[in-house]
């Protein structure tokens, strides 16, 4: 048996008081007791070692499911259903009294698992925040109000008199986003609700956003996110400074295994069996590049230029394939020189290529972009990066797929997925059409597309292909 | 130079799509004189110190020294992570290195020139902590809606697009977001930069910056999709509605429609007809325009009125929205989003000289942005000429006067710097007093 709190709260005794306080507060008002914890600090619960791991795996299944849903471009209402189903399926417990404990313990265990690198923290933060958002939305208004109160935010309801002065604008915003008008508004600094600002879903005046009661979730989620983000950095410090060493025979191996088993392979390290030679690259691009890279590659050949976003997306992909820095420099130089001249290439572009390989600037070894990142990018004028399934017009996409050799029937299936905004499924179907074999795992990463393609083409059974 | 080299050189310029001809007198010697006599180094440093160079106990003495400067030298050598503790350190470095370009980066958690010393401990604490909220707008991003120039070229026919951008963004930054210390700068060639310097703006995190940039984003086109702007919903957001009635509509109808000849020929009007989803309307208009009746009036105005008339005579919200979409497509600001979204993006300092045009990156008064003529801003050679004509000037003598450059520096100081420093001082005082009060309270419990 061990205590989660003793692991995480060791240095911070007054944290324990916080729990007591917030628990008392939420149990006070009425029947609207929430089952949604805010995870302010680790509770003093005893856990059996095997539960420690099982709970964490169950929660990971939920988070992984959310991650897949997001990268498939699911709409908010679809996400809500998905999250609800995932939660119900994985987070049950035979004893009703243990359900909340399982929730809390699994969350804190995963904090330990995912606190250890920037990349892991980012993923965990994003998935937990999404999870919290949908669980909050699923609660009834009374519970939502109680939770909102628990955050203890200093925001006031807009007074009647003030409401009258901005009423027209508030109604106009409501109409612009196709919502019915609300009567209760909170006035908060715009920085507190970035997602509402970004979507122009609120009226903003003199630095304040007027948010409707129905939008309070944004405010709560921002708070949740920023609290968790800070907590993860602290957890990381405790992990590196004490826990890892103290627990090296007991928890550390479990924790280190947990993070790798569920995040999928890491494409920041090029796969070993590949050794890409520049002379083969055209052939390989034709047979094994996903459409996004195929398109960038083609445009580069055609225009002898790509804007920044395209250079990053393609450049890191090539790096992930195993293209060495020297070869990368030679490749880009050969492509760019006809347009900008070799000298200007050396001056203006070589730096950023070395930068991608961690040889300049802050010397981070950059990771190739995942589908999720590519799908959510925003290509502008003159840009060719992004996900063709999402960013091309139907006409252009049809033409591009035809050039790739995707035939009638398959083509219509792909376009059908695109219309339903299942961009990665569209890419998966393209993969299947091009390779004439199935891809059960789905496409989540351009480098995965590439690796799977090479595996098929290089397998001995496939002698018809080069 | 052999004939071949000359040809190659010219080839290079053409393909580049830019006018690479170095203007008369852009050279290191002139630049040295400019940095020595004219560049307002002390005021720049004062600006970037935000009052922390004062004697008040609330000042953060390390603040200025944590700011990144980056110099691009004559031979394209790129010096990043320079930092300076005082105005004279900065001034000496500029005079000594004579950079062709000076970029300003964020204020970091530690002195950027010593960043490696701090990165040893495993935990990388070298991270940006403050940065002005910046915007970069390039006219080359408008190439699909201007016919007079392309690429890096600008003229008085297309420059109003930048004027529109300044007006729309400036108004919103002030009225919607409540910022008041905003500096607009001509970028020296093809666009404008905006620096929002309020304390609140400098402390925004990346997510909040991205939110503001997205709030401004309407244009969603890329090279592979047709629809450039789509305004959803049954009403426009108040910010867009205000921008439309106060700025976009007027500039579209009174300036750009005619100056860009938006309806001049079939190719051009087809581009606009593409934005109307109603087949019956487009074919009616196409028929009318192809029969090409001569008229004394401006053909662009005539055709636009016909289009508007036909669209508004039809029932349904979509048709009115369509008129707005066309106007937005041709006028609404197009921001370089990445520059605004991240704290660590570098941006060229005001009062630099653009090496390709020789023009000085002068501040623009947003209230008078209509008057800016990018082809007539002070150039390095002109300034040096004026200096020479003014006779010999003793070291440290500031009595040189007589060009628009002086007006620019004056604007920078009086309308931007002075009010900014005043509010910085107040902010430092307030937060200091609060801190003192807090510590007093905690003692007397």
From TrEMBL, chain A:
- Which InterPro entries would you find in this protein's record? DNA_primase_C, DNA_primase_lsu_euk, DNA_primase_lsu_euk/arc
Q: Which residues form the DNA primase large subunit C-terminal domain?
A: 282-450
Q: Which residues bind [4Fe-4S] cluster?
A: 292, 371, 387, 427
Which Pfam family, giving just one, matches this sequence? Answer: DNA_primase_lrg_N
In the record's cofactor note, how is the cofactor described as bound? Binds 1 [4Fe-4S] cluster.
The cofactors required by this protein are: [4Fe-4S] cluster
Family assignment from sequence similarity: Belongs to the eukaryotic-type primase large subunit family.
What does the protein in this record do? DNA primase is the polymerase that synthesizes small RNA primers for the Okazaki fragments made during discontinuous DNA replication.
* Protein name per Swiss-Prot or TrEMBL: DNA primase large subunit
Which terms are listed as keywords in the entry?
4Fe-4S, DNA replication, DNA-binding, Iron, Iron-sulfur, Metal-binding, Primosome
Q: Can you list the GO cellular component terms from the UniProt entry?
A: alpha DNA polymerase:primase complex
Any stretches that span the bilayer, and where are they?
none
The molecular function GO annotations come to: 4 iron, 4 sulfur cluster binding; DNA binding; metal ion binding
* One annotated GO biological process: DNA replication, synthesis of primer
Automatic annotation (TrEMBL), chain B:
Can you cite a GO biological process for this protein? DNA replication, synthesis of primer
Q: Which terms in the Gene Ontology molecular function aspect does this entry carry?
A: DNA-directed RNA polymerase activity; metal ion binding
The EC code for this enzyme is: 2.7.7.-
Alphabetical keyword list = DNA replication, DNA-directed RNA polymerase, Metal-binding, Nucleotidyltransferase, Primosome, Transcription, Transferase, Zinc
**How is this protein annotated for GO cellular component?**
alpha DNA polymerase:primase complex
Q: Does the keyword Chloroplast apply?
A: no
Tell me the cofactors it needs.
Mn(2+); Mg(2+)
Q: Which Pfam families match?
A: DNA_primase_S
Record's InterPro entries?
DNA_primase_S, DNA_primase_ssu_euk/arc
Record's superkingdom?
Eukaryota
Q: Does the keyword Lipid metabolism apply?
A: no
Give the protein family. Answer: Belongs to the eukaryotic-type primase small subunit family.
Matching NCBIfam families: primase_sml
Q: What is this protein called?
A: DNA primase
The taxonomic lineage of its organism, from the top, reads: Eukaryota, Viridiplantae, Streptophyta, Embryophyta, Tracheophyta
